[in-house]
TrEMBL record:
Entry keyword Transferase: yes
Domain Histidine kinase: 230-452
GO biological process per UniProt: osmosensory signaling via phosphorelay pathway
Protein name: histidine kinase
Major enzyme class: transferase
Transmembrane intervals: 12-29
Reactions performed catalytically: ATP + protein L-histidine = ADP + protein N-phospho-L-histidine
Highest taxon of the lineage: Bacteria
A Pfam match: PAS_8
Length: 452
């Protein structure tokens, strides 16, 4: 529409200019110089007005573009001008100005919103020029953590916090570091993180600094509590069978002593002596295994080395049954063992493997309580060149939806459970480059398979 009106205006002015040229030429032929001079002056005025008419829109456009260049969107263009083409052009310019002003207001509001958030959070935030080390922006939390009134460059941190200055110089984008700094309130642990970004063709580094002393202390305390729970659980698992076996031996010896008091000349019962000897040997071995286990966990921060030896599975089962049978028989639980072939061996840490089997038998004992003819069966054999040990029970079984969670540390479905035994068993099997698997059916029983 603007261009059509412009073309119409040009056409009218061109016709008027041709008409004036015709009149001037007519008077020139009559040699009337006064009229000719007047005609020439009028044509010059028409040419000037035509040029002004053509360039008016360009001038307005140039003025608008200059305002955009200066980011000055406060200009208002007259929409009520007598020139209809300029009126529409001015309307378009004002519409663009209003749009940019609204976008600027929204950006400023968003900027102020982000500034408020960054000032309110307790994490220190700082933007640094990667090349110069100059601080572009820093929030109050950053200065408050380090007790600094202002911060212009990371180099100014070197006299007061040389360790932090070195970390800022060497930290890579996307990495984090835990620093221990001596602040006014005492030694604190600070988590330093860095992220790189580009703004206006400059490489900037966004630094985040957070005092995590309380969080680290709480995490360490929780870790120690969990470790103590593991230790307590495993010690109790070993001590209870030892106490049960010692009590059984004590009762037998007490009966033998009473018998000897009544019949001093009676010969000692060889079977009792053999049982006592075997019981003391089992208690000694389990005590040594318990000491080995405690030593194993005491060195968690070091490389965990296994005391690998050739283990005869028959002897392993004999030691386990001698330790666990008295406790199970008191509850009416039958314990059976089968090893095929009898000379089957494996290569592992006997003390830790005993700990695994004790945990599995205790879990089986809990599962079969209250079941008709409760029993726990230990079997061992070879499959695909590996030694496989199974611990089977005819207990209540494990619900299918819990099977994937039973090896998670501290997960338990029992009121008095700790959720430690199975996770520790899996950990020990992984140290042996082996595996532990479970098959269970509710109402039928559960089988744990150890492959070595």
């Amino acid at each position: 529409m603007i261009f059509k009106r412009l073309e119409f205006g040009l056409f009218v002015r061109f016709i008027l200019l041709l008409g004036m040229m015709f009149v001037t030429v007519y008077y020139l032929a009559q040699f009337t110089w006064l009229q000719v001079s007047s005609g020439v002056l009028v044509m010059l005025a028409q040419l000037w007005e035509l040029a002004s008419y053509v360039t008016r829109s360009n001038n307005e456009l140039a003025r608008f573009l200059e305002a955009v260049k200066q980011r000055d969107f406060s200009q208002r263009f007259n929409e009520h001008t007598t020139n209809s083409s300029l009126r529409q052009l001015h309307y378009a310019f004002n519409l663009i100005n209003n749009t940019y002003k609204q976008l600027h207001i929204e950006q400023e509001a968003q900027f102020q919103y982000m500034q408020t958030i960054l000032r309110m959070i307790d994490t220190g935030i700082m933007a640094v020029d990667e090349e110069t080390g100059e601080v572009e922006w820093v929030n109050d939390a950053f200065r408050k953590i380090l007790h600094l009134p202002y911060l212009k460059s990371i180099d100014s941190l070197e006299p007061r916090y040389p360790l932090l200055h070195e970390a800022l110089q060497t930290i890579k984008p996307g990495h984090s570091r835990l620093l221990k700094l001596k602040l006014q309130e005492g030694t604190s642990q600070l988590l330093l993180s860095a992220t790189a970004f580009t703004m206006q063709r400059r490489q900037l580094l966004l630094i985040a600094l957070k005092n995590v002393s309380a969080t680290v202390d709480a995490t360490e305390t929780e870790a120690w509590q969990k470790l103590l729970r593991v230790m307590t659980h495993e010690i109790m698992n070993s001590v209870a069978p030892i106490a049960s076996l010692a009590d059984t031996l004590g009762r037998h010896l007490h009966l033998e002593r009473e018998k000897y008091a009544q019949e001093p000349a009676a010969a000692p019962d060889p079977e009792l002596l053999q049982d006592t000897e075997e019981g003391i040997t089992i208690i000694k071995k389990r005590s040594e295994g318990l000491l080995r286990f405690a030593h194993f966990y005491r060195n968690l921060s070091k490389s965990q080395e296994l005391l690998l030896t050739t283990v005869y599975v028959q002897e392993l089962f004999k030691s386990i049954t001698g330790l666990m049978r008295p406790q199970l028989e008191e509850l009416g639980v039958e314990l059976r063992c089968h090893v095929t072939p009898p000379g089957l061996t494996l290569y592992g840490d006997v003390n830790l493997l005993e700990q695994v089997l004790i945990n599995l038998i205790l879990n089986a004992k809990r599962a079969v309580l209250g079941r008709p003819e409760p029993k726990v069966i230990l079997t061992a054999g070879q499959e695909n060149g590996k030694t496989v040990i199974e611990v089977q029970d005819n207990g209540a079984g494990i619900p299918e939806d819990l099977l994937e969670s039973i090896f998670i540390p501290f997960f338990t479905s029992h009121k008095d459970g700790s959720g430690i035994g199975l996770s520790l068993a899996k950990h020990i099997m992984l140290l042996h480059k082996g595996s532990i698997q479970v098959e269970s059916k509710e109402g039928v029983g559960t089988v744990f398979r150890l492959s070595l």
